[in-house]
Amino acid sequence: MFVTPHGKVETPAFMAVGTLATVKGLDPEDLRRIGAQMILSNAYHLHLRPGDALIRSLGGMHRFMAWDGPILTDSGGFQVFSLEGLRTVREEGVEFRSHIDGSPRFFTPELVMRIERNLGADVIMQFDHVVPGQSEAPVAREASERSVRWLERCAAEFDVLGIEGDSAGQPYDMQALFPIVQGGIHDALRIEGAARVAAVRDWHGFGIGGLSVGEAKPDMYRILETVHDVLPRDRPRYLMGVGFPEDLVEGVRRGVDMFDCVAPTRMGRNGAAFTADGRLNIRRAEFRDDPRPLDDECDCTACARFSRAYLRHLFVADELLGLRLLSLHNVHFLVRLMRHARSALLGGTFDAWATAWLARYHSRSPVPR
Amino acid sequence: MFVTPHGKVETPAFMAVGTLATVKGLDPEDLRRIGAQMILSNAYHLHLRPGDALIRSLGGMHRFMAWDGPILTDSGGFQVFSLEGLRTVREEGVEFRSHIDGSPRFFTPELVMRIERNLGADVIMQFDHVVPGQSEAPVAREASERSVRWLERCAAEFDVLGIEGDSAGQPYDMQALFPIVQGGIHDALRIEGAARVAAVRDWHGFGIGGLSVGEAKPDMYRILETVHDVLPRDRPRYLMGVGFPEDLVEGVRRGVDMFDCVAPTRMGRNGAAFTADGRLNIRRAEFRDDPRPLDDECDCTACARFSRAYLRHLFVADELLGLRLLSLHNVHFLVRLMRHARSALLGGTFDAWATAWLARYHSRSPVPR
User: Fold this and answer.
1) Options B74, B128, B257, B290, the catalytic residue
2) Annotated catalytic, B159?
3) Which of A34, A182, B141, B274 can bridge A332 by disulfide, Cβ–Cβ 3.0-4.6 Å?
4) Between chains, do B49 and A307 touch, taking CB under 8 Å as contact?
5) CB under 8 Å to B22, separation ≥6 — which residues?
6) Which residues pair with B191 in a beta bridge?
C-alpha cells in the first residue's frame, strides 16, 4: 500500500490506461465502480494534444478528466523512442516529429518534468531512454546509463519546480517522481542500473522499464527476479506496460506492485474478453444464443446484466455499447485479479493461489454449451 | 400519463431510440438516471439482426437489453418503404431485400405482428404504408387506405396471438397495439383516416405517421392541429420520428403526447449539443479552453463534471467517451424539456412557457466568452 495526495493505493494494483486523459470507452464513474484505484496517463500524448499548459490552466488532470483518484503519468520515453526513424537521440534530449502533425519537437528531461508538473499527476515518471527488448548489452548499457544521467537532471528540475511552488507561490510537494530502471535482458546491467538509480536519492517507488518490449517471457521473468533482489524492499515497484492476466500473476509472484497496460481496453474494443478459463472472442458464432454472462464468476456490471448473446449482437451490429461493456469487463477482471492476489498475499496463500489460477487460465478454453 | 406492464409513462414524453436494442452510445443505466421513461426499438431491424425468435428465446427485449422500463417497437413500415427500388408493394404485403445481406423478404401485417409479439415490447405499432411527405393526394390516399386495411389485419392477428397465449398457454394481454394515422399533408385525408382508424376499435393510443418525412414544417404543424381535433381526447397521441427540441415544443402545443427521434444520439455522435440557447458544435476552436459545461442550466452527468474544453478534446482525439457524453446530454435535454412541458401544462402556463422557450432557443447562439 502507498499513499498519494488523491488517496491510497493497495498493492499489487493494476492501473487502467487513459493515454489521452480518458480510459478508452469508459467513464470515470465506471472506473470508480470497478474499484480502480489509480489510472495512468501519458505526458507525450497530452503535451501534443490538447497541451499540458491548457490542462494546467483548467485545473490539472484530475479536474480536467473528472477523476479524483490517484493518477500516474508516464513521461513519454517509450513513445518517443518508438518513433523509429523520426527521432534523433542526443545527450541533451531527443529530437522528434509529432505523430499528429509532423511538427519538430525536442524533449529534454527538464521539459518533460515541466510537462508532468503541468499535468499534475500524483506520480510522475522520469524521462528515460528505452531500447527494444532484444538489444545487445552495449546498446542496453548506453540506454541504461543515459537514463541514469537523465534521472539526475529530472530530479534537479523536479526540485526546482518544487521550490518555485504552486500557483500561489507555496512550496509544492504534491507529486512523487519515480525513477525507471533500465538494462534490457542483461542481469548485470539491471543490477548495476538499479544500484545507480537507488544511489541518486531515496525514491518513493521504482519503475521497471524496457520489459514487455519484444523480449521473450522467460527473460522478462528472470529480470524481474534479478531486480527484485536489489531494489529496496519497502518501496513499490512498477512494471511498466504489463500486462495480460497471466503476466500480472507472474509479476506479483516476482515482487511487482503496480502494472499498467492498454490490453484490457484494446482487446475489449476488439471483442476479446478475459475469463477465468482464458480468453474468448465474443464475435464467434457459438455465442449467438448463449444466455450466460461473459464470465460466470464475474460481478462486473456487464456480466451482471447481459448475456453473451446480447454482447455478440452489439459487436456484430457495430454498436458502441459493446465496446464499453467489454472494456469495462476486462478492466474489472484485472482489478479484481489484483484484489484476489492481495488477499492471497495477506493470507499467506499466494503461491498456491497463483499456481491454481494460472493452471486454470492456461488449461481450458471456454466450453460451448 | 398512461400505464404499461413495465411502468407508467408521464406525458408528454420523449422516447430515446434504440433501433437495435441499444440506444446508441448509452447504457440502460444512463437512461434510467436521465429519467427516460420509455424507449423505442424497431421490428424491421431486430427481425433481420439478431432475429426476433432469438430475442424471444432469450426472454424478450426487456431482458435482452436489460431495460425493465416500457418499450415501444415500431413496425418497420417506415424502414421498408424507405428501401426505394428494393421493394414491391402488394395488397398482401411488401417484398423487399434485406439491407444487410440482400436476402429476399416478405413482410405482411400478420408477420409483423408475430415479430413484435416475439420482441415483447409494451406498445407495438401496426404495419403501415408510408409515403414521402410531399406526396400528392391520390398517392397519400392509397397509402392511408391500405394502412387502414392492414390495421384491420394487424388487429385480427393481434387477437389470435392473444388467444394463443404466452409460452405457458395463458391468455396474453401484455401488449398494446397502436394504429397509425396516415394521410400525408392533406387535411381531408387525415380527418378521414383518423375516423376510419378510430372506427376499427377502441385503441389505447394513436400513432401519427407520415410526418417529418420531407414535408414543410408549417404543413406538419397544420396537420397536427387537424388530427388533434378528430382523435379521442383521452388517448395518447404519438408523433412518430419527431424530433428536434423545437419540434417537441411545437408538437406538445398541438396536443402530442409522445415523440421519438434519433436526433439526440446521432447529433451527439457528431459533436452537436442542444442547449437552451440553441445548438453548439463542440469541435469548434472557440471551445478549446472553455471551462464551462455544455449548458449552464443542465444537470446531466456530462454537464455536472466536464468542461467544453474536455469534451472538445475527446472529439478532436476521437475518444469514445465523447460520443457517450454528448449523446447522454442530448437525450437528457429532451427528457428534461418534456418534464418542464408537463409542469407548465399542469400549472396552466404552457403557452407562455413555450413561447419564451422557443424565442430563446431560436434567437441566440452560444456566446463565446
Assistant:
1) B74
2) no
3) A34
4) no
5) A314, A319, A320, A321, B65
6) none
H-state helical runs in chain B: 28-34, 43-48, 52-57, 61-65, 77-81, 109-119, 137-164, 187-200, 217-230, 245-253, 263-269, 301-305, 308-316, 320-346, 350-363
**ipTM of the shown complex:** 0.96
Cα–Cα distance between B26 and A319 in angstroms, integer? Answer: 10
d(C-alpha A355, C-alpha A364), whole Å: 14
pTM here? 0.96
pLDDT, tens digit only, all 369 positions of chain A? 889 999 999 999 999 999 999 999 999 999 999 999 999 999 999 999 999 999 999 999 999 999 999 999 999 988 888 887 788 999 999 999 998 999 999 999 999 999 999 999 999 999 999 999 889 999 999 999 999 999 999 999 999 999 988 877 787 888 999 999 999 999 999 999 999 999 999 999 999 999 999 899 999 999 999 999 999 999 999 999 998 999 999 999 999 999 999 999 999 999 999 999 999 999 999 999 999 999 999 999 999 999 999 999 999 999 999 999 999 999 999 999 999 999 999 999 999 999 999 999 998 654 443
- Active site (annotated) includes residue A166: no
Our CA-based measurement puts residue B348 at a distance from the nearest CA of chain A, in whole angstroms, of 39
Contact (CB<8Å) A288/B54: yes
DSSP string, B24-58: TT--HHHHHHHT---EEEEHHHHHHTT-HHHHHHT
